Inverse folding.
């Protein structure tokens, strides 16, 4: 592999999705066929249930253990950055997300209170904490599955970082001013219901990241395959229609103030994007 491709692969590693929803991207792979370390998407299913029936699932406990070990290394200062159980010697920041977070804090006199839905064991919190530490108040609430929440509460959480099972549980203790949805909506069967629940809470800012969209035509439901080199898994993944996706926000009086392209790539015609929305009510 030449030096350029090595650099590109290193950059790709830094945009890995949350623990149970995605895997590493090999952006230097020019072939659509699966390689040893590449994630692939196949199919165009009529319903989520059909894609689920064609999927084999994943070993969630094995994934959790890998993520836990890597996150503890970061928390204890033995590594600087973790994403989906991979640790890195250098943090490659995704500046649009950090900009959205710091902008939200600036609009609230230095207070940042994040609701991170599907945030693993706090990967985005640890990624950005160097900059967040300059703020007057920082609270980061991760909403996750039961086994991740139990692990986070026992081993990871601190004065700033907390773990919750539901949005409602989080809102009993926190008053978030920004929601982070990073690589999570494509993996939800009823994503509109979840999103509408969030929109109805009237949280001032919503940041969407690493979300795939078809280049043309209607949305596409696929089966995503993660190779054994990362963690062996297959599960449904949705590629959205961008105009319909944005319309859901607009119909709830949220205004898109910025959009941006993410580094994630897939082997089907698509683009990964992110957005920053603000509440206009």
């Amino acid at each position: 592999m030449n030096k350029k491709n090595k650099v590109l692969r290193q950059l790709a590693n830094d945009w890995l999705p949350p623990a149970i929803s995605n895997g590493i991207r090999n952006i230097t792979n020019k072939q659509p066929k699966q390689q040893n370390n590449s994630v692939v998407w196949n199919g165009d299913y009529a319903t989520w249930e059909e894609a689920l029936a064609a999927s084999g699932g994943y070993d969630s406990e094995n994934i959790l253990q890998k993520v836990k070990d890597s996150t503890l290394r970061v928390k204890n200062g033995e590594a600087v950055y973790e994403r989906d159980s991979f640790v890195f010697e250098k943090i490659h920041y995704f500046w649009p997300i950090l900009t959205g977070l710091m902008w939200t804090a600036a609009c609230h006199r230095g207070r940042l209170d994040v609701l991170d839905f599907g945030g693993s064991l706090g990967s985005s919190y640890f990624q950005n904490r160097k900059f967040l530490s300059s703020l007057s108040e920082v609270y980061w609430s991760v909403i996750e599955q039961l086994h991740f929440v139990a692990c986070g509460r026992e081993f990871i959480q601190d004065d700033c970082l907390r773990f919750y099972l539901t949005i409602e549980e989080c809102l009993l203790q926190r008053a978030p001013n920004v929601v982070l949805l990073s690589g999570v909506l494509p993996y939800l069967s009823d994503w509109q219901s979840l999103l509408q629940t969030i929109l109805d809470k009237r949280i001032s800012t919503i940041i969407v990241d690493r979300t795939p969209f078809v280049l043309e035509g209607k949305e596409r439901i696929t089966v995503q395959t993660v190779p054994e080199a990362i963690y062996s898994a297959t599960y449904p993944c949705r590629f959205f229609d961008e105009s319909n996706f944005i319309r859901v926000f607009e119909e709830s009086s949220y205004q898109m103030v910025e959009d941006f392209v993410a580094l994630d790539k897939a082997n089907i015609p698509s683009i990964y994007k992110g957005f920053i929305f603000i509440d206009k009510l």
User: Anything to note?
Assistant: Residues 2-35 have pLDDT under 50 and may be disordered.
